[in-house]
Automatic annotation (TrEMBL):
Keywords, alphabetical: ATP-binding, Nucleotide-binding, Transport
Location of the ABC transporter domain: 18-260
Organism: Dictyobacter formicarum
Designated name of the protein: ABC transporter ATP-binding protein
Lineage: Bacteria, Bacillati, Chloroflexota, Ktedonobacteria, Ktedonobacterales
CDD domains: ABC_Metallic_Cations
UniProt keyword Nucleotide-binding, yes or no: yes
Entry keyword annotation includes Flavoprotein: no
Length: 284
């Protein structure tokens, strides 16, 4: 298959190592709450990883710690062999629940273009000045095509549905050809059919760009066949492995410290029963 976006160099120098992201004995404390501790992780280039768990478990916190948007209270995280660095241009990031109001008239294409022009993380990207306008426009178009947003990219973004806006935000994160794509609940605005379509698109992006994807979600079902591994965050700890290894009665009961049952529906969907409602117990 043809590689996409070949005409501009990658933003970062590829510090090639087998482990793209290394998390060592990490803990985050916010206020007086320890969100999670003793987190160890090794993430390889090109992996598609879902970050799962109940509300308030610390999924977004884990993503933000990897992006260095939240400091660790203990341990270390390295990304591409370097300490995690805020604004790292090798990471494309789509935060949780961003949307544009109906009165925003900026075209979708311009929103995608912001990813090249330094809107991303508020930092200018060094190669933009050197990139000629045609190559930049082509790259924007390729990112739009890749997420399947071609039909509506020239409409005002405020007129688009939540799912359409979400695709354009993913295109914005992709436009620098990042090595890591960090997506916080990108399936949130989508119905089941579109969730599955989006999962397929993200899987394709990950393969074609050889990008590592870290995707926070509440529901693993639309992603079951797409992901390589899951990180399950609960009760101040994590469990890591394939869905078949982690989403089991035994592993989740151990993680939660109480009996949690994993049921398999006849259509292949997984249902987790008996999760404690709130993530209060582990804090302290
Ligand atoms: N600034 C803060 N000070 C204290 N606690 C915080 C702060 N920010 C977040 N928290 C708490 O940290 C915990 C983890 O939040 P986080 O957003 O990472 O959870 P999550 O698993 O992504 O949840 P959700 O699925 O609801 O989005 C929550 O209990 C939240 O209330």
């Amino acid at each position: 298959m043809t590689k996409i976006l070949p005409q501009l160099p990658r933003v970062s120098s590829p510090a090639e190592s087998a482990e793209l992201i290394e998390v060592h004995e990490a803990a985050v404390t916010l206020g007086t709450h320890t969100i999670w501790r003793d987190v160890h992780l090794s993430i390889q280039a090109g992996e598609f990883i879902a970050i799962l768990g109940p509300n308030g478990a610390g999924k977004s916190t884990l993503l933000k710690a990897i992006l260095e948007l939240i400091p660790l209270s203990h341990g270390s995280i390295t990304v591409l062999g370097q300490p995690a660095r805020r604004g790292n241009a090798a990471i494309g990031y789509v935060p949780q629940r961003r949307h544009f109001d109906a009165d925003v008239h900026v075209r979708g294409r311009s929103i995608v273009r912001l990813g090249l022009d330094g809107g991303k993380w508020g930092l200018p990207l060094p190669f933009v000045a050197r990139a000629n306008a045609r190559a930049a426009a082509l790259r924007v178009q390729q990112a739009i095509d890749l997420v399947g947003a071609t039909a509506y990219a020239d409409r005002p973004i405020g007129e688009l549905s939540g799912g359409e806006q979400q695709r354009l935000l993913i295109a914005q994160a992709l436009v620098t050809q990042p090595r890591i794509l960090a997506l916080d609940e990108p399936l949130d605005n989508l119905d089941l059919r579109h969730q599955q379509a989006a999962a397929t698109v993200i899987r394709r992006i990950s393969r074609e760009m050889q990008a590592t994807v870290l995707l926070v979600t509440h529901d693993i079902n639309p992603l079951l066949t797409a992901v390589d591994r899951v990180i399950y965050v609960a009760h101040g700890q994590i469990a890591v492995g394939t869905p078949a290894e982690v989403i089991t009665t035994e592993t989740l009961s151990r993680l939660y410290g109480t009996t949690v049952e994993v049921l398999h529906a006849s259509d292949g969907r997984i249902v987790v029963v008996g999760q404690p409602d709130v993530e209060e117990g582990h804090h302290g």
